[in-house]
Structures are given as structure tokens and as C-alpha cells.
Amino acid sequence: MSYPVKTAPCRGYHGFRHLGGMALAILLPATLHANAGAIMEMRLIDISDSPGWLDEDLGKLRYGENDGPVELGQAMFHLDTGVTDTLRFRGVASYDTQRDEKLDVIESYLHWRPVPAGGFRHRLNAGLFYPPFSEENRDKAWLSPYSYSNSAINAWIGEEVRTVGLQYSLERPGMFHRSPHDLTFNAAAFVGNDPTGTLLAWRGWSVHGRQSGVFERLPLPALPSFESGGAFEYQAQWLEPFREIDNRIGYYLGGEWDYTDRARFHLHYYDNRGDPTAFEVRGQGYYNSDPVIQYAWDTRFWHAGWRFKLPGQLDLFGQWMSGRTIMGAGDSLVDAEFDAAYLMLSRAFGDHRFSLRLDDFRVRDRAPGTPQDNTNESGDAWMVAWRWRMNEHWQLGAEWLSVDNRRPARAAYFGDPAKRTESLLQLGLEWRFGR
Amino acid sequence: MRSVLLIVLCLAASAGRGATLTAEVQQADGSALPDTVVFALPLNGRIPAPSEVPRILNQDEERFDPHVLPVQRGGSVRFTNEDDINHHVYSFSRTRRFDIQIPAGEAEGPIRFQETGTVPMGCNIHDWMLAYIHVVDTPWFATTGSTGEATIRELPPGDYRIKIWHPRAREELSDHERVINMEGDSNLTFQLEQGLTPPHRQDVPEFDY
Fold this sequence. Notes:
The complex is a heterodimer of chains A (435) and B (209). Chain A has 435 residues and is mainly beta. Chain A has helices at 16-27, 152-160, 198-202, 408-414, and strands at residues 35-47, 70-82, 87-95, 103-112, 121-129, 163-172, 181-191, 218-219, 238-239, 250-259, 263-271, 279-284, 291-295, 298-310, 314-329, 332-349, 352-365, 377-389, 394-406, 419-434. Chain B contains one helix and 16 strands. A five-stranded mixed β-sheet of chain B has the order 5-11-10-7-8, with no helix packed on it.
């Protein structure tokens, strides 16, 4: 019996696209005093002969053997404009040749920062935005100033994790308390993000700098469990990671600690409170009238991040994530534990920046009884990058990335070796304007 | 003609009268302590009214300049913005509470300060920005520069209590007060006994957010 045990009402956010468009239309005239700009980056790539994950494969990289040599790396449009003295609208859109609808929304939210009335700051985000986890993606439009690929953790956040809701932050800045310690408490409640976790289980981790559009359908590997008679035969061959399926509100909670400009540590707990037996019918099959569905996944994780300024102007930072995702029930159950961490060492020499990153990741299949659904994997990656900020508008860079990984599903379902080394050399030329 | 004469007389009077106090402020380890307010409170005689010309607190490259600005009680401060982005300066201090928008390239204010005390200020757009206005009950004040030296000019003869103030001093700074008689030029050296409190987060973010 592969059809889900319990049904949940199908409620999407069909009005959301129009809402976003309306918000932009209303706010665009107010952009006279806005910070707005674009970042365009072209790449020359040389890739090992392995398929990319966007080719419905169990690959780890954004590009596959059929891609290149010239690719559009990033095309980002960003806007940050005042609505009132203390309310800002922030939006990011991206143009991506690797999706059906090339132009899509990345972030769109209101940011309220009332003037502090005492020694604390209150901040509120409302809309669609990234959770405050990444130590890499510190540039505009959630790009990394260090490298073209993100670590496994941030590649996944870019794919499947986006807050659709509210985030409240309470900050106790040391500067108003004669203290070198800054403390921040974050709490968020969100809808959507019910399929979040799908990629980690069925495809595993990946290492790349691509960000999913809010309305985008991401491809899944063509697993035998999706075929007729398989444990998840009605599962679509894609996922829409940010949809609301079970009408349950997810949350994350956590804190940040900064010691002057020298050290920083943050810890959060995230739970999308997905109902693992809920699903949504998203269409019909091409060849029959079978439904095409998307499941809700119950995904929760601990996340930590840290950053140190070492002697010699070296930046050492990293993130760690450990969690579990569950979908289905009985003999149609996916239960996977996932872990990943990375360490990055970076130093700027004038306008040149050199960075080195080591990644480690694994997924453990906790439901080995489900047929044709082995989600185990382990791997590590190393990356070395150079970025040169030639002037205000132009940047040049290069990155070497190599991902060693083992995924038994490749051997079991595709007849490929379970172990694979995927490597990618990228040269990037970036042009940006605005601010 | 009469007014010109008056101006000349005033200039002559202000140029000719008064002594100069040079104060050097050192940290506990003997190194120079910049951004210290040194001020002289007359023990007798009248305190002149504050200048009608506002003092200037500038914003440049997403920092306040100067970091510490003394102002006489009753005097005012004008906020200038040399950045090409807006700033939103605020203070929630008991001494003076305000918030003021300063558009890119413009100036706003003045804000008047009617009570003595310290006014820490932030920018509600750029969280790392911090400056202090220190309101004192005298027109005779100066701030130490990078060498730790401050010079107060044109002190009329008389007795003064010389005080210092620094935002990151750990110790009670009233212990360092001196009473001196200014008949001619004087030099004073202050040395703190304890180290400073650690600095707060102040780096302008390396990358734009």
C-alpha cells in the first residue's frame, strides 16, 4: 500500500504570487530613495564526467557533464527601500537558466526596526526570507563573498529552507551596556516548508551556490520507489520545497553571542512540524489518471555557527547541522538522520581574498525496511577559492571544488559505482551595479 | 564704525586674555588615551553662556566623527552626513532622548542639550555606529587626540577643578580630579589606574548585507 494513510486538505498559496507582485508594484514607486542593484556573474567551468543533481541524478554539483563551458553563474536583483523611518522592504529576485520559469523570487519581506527606547533592540521580519544561519552568505542577495559554491549546509538552506512567516529578534548590544558581549535571541514562526527535507533524504547533500526560486520545481533523482508499484509511486518527479501542505506552523528558536568583533557563536533549533502523513495532489500523471502528489515531511534540526578573527587577519568560521526528516508510515516510510559541518579559513590581501573550505556530510537511513529506498550516504568536500575585487563594479575569481562521496543507492538502482569523486573548476567574472 | 571698533576690541580681548592648559591622559600602561574629554570647571566667577554656534557631529564612512564630542550645557549639536546613504541617529539616554533622520549628504539639527551627563548615540540603520556626547557645565573643554593630549585655551585667571571623562574607563574618574590655579600656562598629566573596558563591536561589515 503506497498511497498515503491519511489525507490532508490540499491548500496551497495560490494567491501568494499575486500578493508578491502587488507588493512590488505598490512599493516600486517608493524606490526613489531605495538601495537597488544587480549582480551578474558569468562562469567558465570544467567539470568531471558526472551528472549534476539538476539532471534528476544523485550528483552533488550544480553542473553536470553536459553543462559548460560557459554558464550563467548568478543573476540577482536586489532592493532595500524605506517604507517609513523604521520599516524597510527588502526583495531579491534571480534569473536562472536552470529553471523553467527563469525569473523567480528569492526573498521578499518587510523589516521593522523601531528606534531603541532602552538598552535593547527589537527587530521583526515579516514575509519570505532566509533564517539567520549562514556564515558564508554575507554578500548582497545571499551570495557568498568567499566562493562560488556554498558548503553542503548552505547549499541545502538555499535549496529547501526559507522562512515564510515572522521572525522576532531581541538584541542586547554591548555598546549600550559597557560590555563587549552582544546577545541576540531569535524566534520565528512560519508556514510552507513542508516538503523541506525531501532532497536530503532522496538525493542527499550537495555543494553549490544556486538558490531555489520560491515558485520553482526542483527535480528529484529518478528513484525506483517512484515507479508504478513502488513505495512512493504517486510522488512527483519534482518538489516544490516551500509549499504549505499540512496547515501546521513551524518554528525556530535560538540565540547569538558576539564577543566584540573577534568571536561569534550561534545556536538554533528548527522544526517545520510537518505532518509526515499529509500530502497534496498537484496534478495527474502523463500516461494515466493517477494523481501526482507531494508529501509533507517532518524535518527538524539543530544548527550552530561560529566565527573567529585569528591573528594575522585570518577569518576562521564554520557551521554544523544535525537533524532528522521523516515522511510516510508503515512500509512506505522515509526516516533519515542527516549531519553536516564545514570549516572555512579565509584571508584578504588587499582586493584579493583567498579561502579554503573543508566539508563533511552524511545521511543515515533509519527506515531500512522500505523497499528501493536506501538514503544512506557519506562524503566530504574541499574547496579553494580566489576572489579579486578589481573595482566597484567588476570581480574576477576562480574556485576548485572536489566532492568525494559514497551513496549505495547509485549502485543499487542505477548500476553506477556507489563511490564517486565529483570535481569542478570554475572561473567567474562578475559585474555589479547599484548598491 | 562703532561696531567695527567693538569687534576689534572683542578680538583683542579674547586673544590677549587667559592661559592655556595642556593635559596629557595616559592609560594604565602609559600609552596615550585618545577620546578623553578634559574640562575645567571654574570654582569662582561666572560661567559664560554657551556659544550659539552648534558643535558638529559628522557621519563619514558609516562612522561618527568624532567618537566623543563635548558640548556645554545649553549648547547644541548639528549632525552632518557626508555618506551617500541616510543615517538615523538616536539616543535613549536620560540626559537627552532624541531621534533624527539625516539624509545622505545633508545636515540636520541642531539638537540642544540642557542637562549635564553622557548621551550615547547609535544609528538605527547601521547598528555598529556609536558616539558619545558628553555635556559639561563649562565652555572650557577639549578632547584628547591620538597622542593623548588635549589643549584648553583662553582660561581666565582663577581656580579650576579639572575633570576627565572617557566612555570606556573602568574606574571612578572623579578620583582623578585636580584643582589648579590658572595664572599662567599649565601642564597636567592624568594616568588611569585600571585598564579600559573591552571595545564593543564596531567593525563596519566587510561585505554589504
